[in-house]
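User: My collaborator sent over this chain with a note saying "see what the structure looks like." That's all I know about it. Can you take a look?
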Amino acid sequence: MENRNNNQNNRNLQDFNNQENYNEQNNYQDYQNYDNVDSSQYNNFENSQGVNNGQVSAPQKNNYGKLFLTVFAAFALGATSVFGAQAVMGTGKALNSSVTATKEDKDNQQITVNAISKAKDAVVSIVNYQSNSNNNLESILGGNSRRSGSDSSDSSNSSELKPASSGSGVIYKKLGNTAYVVTNNHVVNGAKKLSVILSDGTNVNAEVVGTDVWTDLAVLKISGDNVTATMDFADSDKIAVGETAFAIGSPLDVNLSNTVTKGIVSAVNRQIPMDVDGDGKNDWNQTVIQTDAAINPGNSGGALINNEGKLIGINESKIAKATSNVSAEGIGFGIPSNEVKLITEQLEQSGKVIRPALGVQLVSVNTVDRDTLKSQLNFEGKQGVVVRYVENGTPASQAGIEKYDIITKLNGEDVKDVAAVRKYLFEKSKIGDTVTVTYYRNGKENTTSVVVQALNTR
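Assistant: Without extra context I'll predict from the sequence alone. Here is the result:
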């Protein structure tokens, strides 16, 4: 390594230690809940803190990154208060209409009915049970304190747990006497106990098979005794803007389970920024399907289906308000089914997702003072990532990448920031692939080949 770590540089570059930090190996060992609503980045998850007679504390709001969109972080769409909403009842009487339905109208209606009938029994409600008290010693001290003569598992005893929130899920597989449910990670996050309520009202206990914080997906398994339907995956790469989309889930609470709303696919390959670790910085750009089908609190983890009754996405979030005084309607997002299929397969196999990594900590160029970049690193570019630290024995170290190198391209593709590096590695490379890294050192452009390996990226 060249001698660029002298005292002067350490003083001039000490601001790196306070910048956005990408640590593939160590930084994400202890994740905070997605529910960190103090973040200034896009955050679509719930803050299910206070439980009072089954109610959950009111939602807070977050900004939608640089798009200046404010999302209802608490109940943008995900887990919502359990049994807190009054059930809606009605006689279902129809009014006479002077409009005569055409054969085409009737055919389209029948297609809708058939699609929903095929899919609805595979959609479930999920109830997240957590500790009933937030002011006990463990909560105050933030540790696993033990009372004399008591077992540490006492706090998770079901008699002490209360429903904290609820969401939705989709049964996508049944093997023998076990059925598998996919939902959002934020629906099950923090749970001491999980219950799944089937479409016929049967309540069964659920076990977490695995979770993935980056894609916000989780897989649960339940007894298959009463499971009568599973949902097939559609090819989300073939989804067209304008085609019909139906959202099925449990808005508000389990009393409204199997609610269906209809809309269209508004956009595909939409990128939304995600703050994974709750530090107020963009860690990841999630690729999603946008839809105008009504999505409400409790729909998180539910199904977005097409006219064939097949899964095109897992509902995840919505934008509820833009800027300070402008409300937003019909802007919901779902995780594409092809990604859901890929992640669920890995979670079933190992309980986690193994992704390729370089073995570095990175800082986005656009967060570093321009004068420092120019005077200390001899770099005048506007995008890329500065290497803050290189882990010993990692692919980056073996390829000769050093501290304060500035990476600008991966396999010839420009990388704008930390999130772009992570996205490229996670989505466009596999463990064992050779990636050509273009970087600047002392103002000179260089390239090196890195064989990416599986590191602990959580």
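A starting point for your reply to your collaborator: The chain has eight helices and 27 strands.
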